[in-house]
Specification:
This protein has about 300 residues and is of the alpha/beta class. The protein is built from six helices and 15 strands. It has a six-stranded antiparallel beta sheet with strand order 8-9-10-15-12-13, with helices on one face. Strands 1, 2, 3, 4 and 5 form a five-stranded parallel beta sheet that branches. A two-stranded antiparallel sheet has the order 6-7. Helix 2 crosses helix 3, helix 3 runs parallel beside helix 4 and helix 5 runs parallel beside helix 6. It is globular and about 60 Å long. The protein starts with a helix and ends with a strand.
Length: about 300
Amino acid sequence: YDACEEDCKNNYASSFAIVQEKTYKGVKAADSSAYVLIAGDSSKDLYPEVFKKLNGKYIDIIDHHRFGKYDWHNPKKDFDYLKKSLQSSGFDISKLRFWITETGTYSGDPAIGRDLPYQSEKQQAEGLIKAYVSALSYGIEKIFWAWDIVEGFQRDCGIFDYTGLVYDGCDCVNNKYTCGLNIGYDQGKDVKKLSYYTYKKMVEILGSGDWDNIQTIQESDGIYIYKFIKNNKPIWVAWNDNSQEKQITISGITSSQVKITEAVPKYESGKDIVDYSAAFNTETKSVSSGKTMITLKDKPVFAEEK
């Protein structure tokens, strides 16, 4: 077994490419209209050698897994790297689709794995909205949050046990995943985190929009602004990664008012939310000459024409 395992490590690219080719041919023989994805991995450096072996063939969809702290959200550097590798291996990237079938950030304090500091519910919720909007703006077609809606995937005190949007009543105590009343940071079984409500609000506001025509307004100086279109009306998503609040201007507004909604609820924990309809801070801004000023503080915001 050890010899076999070592051989797989040394020759992973050839082995993976063989499996990918055989799978692709088998799928296409069964259904020529089906799309075949190359399985995702969190280590982008493992891809290029496989791409070279495939020589521009046997892939329809590129998948890459991304996890990390709440400020890891922007996928552009990773996918630019993958696209460059694909092009040098003979792939026409204009004919490929790009997915993220596993992504997530956590709340709490995972005890096993990489050096991951404690993150609050608020930080997880911020990371969630930033991850989705950044990926969609880049052209990532599908993004899947992992692992599971409820915490406790592997129950080994690692990051995947904490990326859920709902508490499971457990936490890591003395390096053992332990369940019960008042365990560690956990707020109680089935209690929804702030990230749950942020995800819900994001789907309500941006869902069913034209995600093929997202406009990147700004990605510089710690300010991020994106323009979505839904029902022929613009919706802006913006956030500020600076430590100080910043003023921004959005333009091209056709109505006289804009509704600003913070993307993260106004509480420290989802446990405190009793009325979802009143859980988010909102304000109405007037519009002058198609423009309005917005103060970006520590939470991402949605801006909708009224």
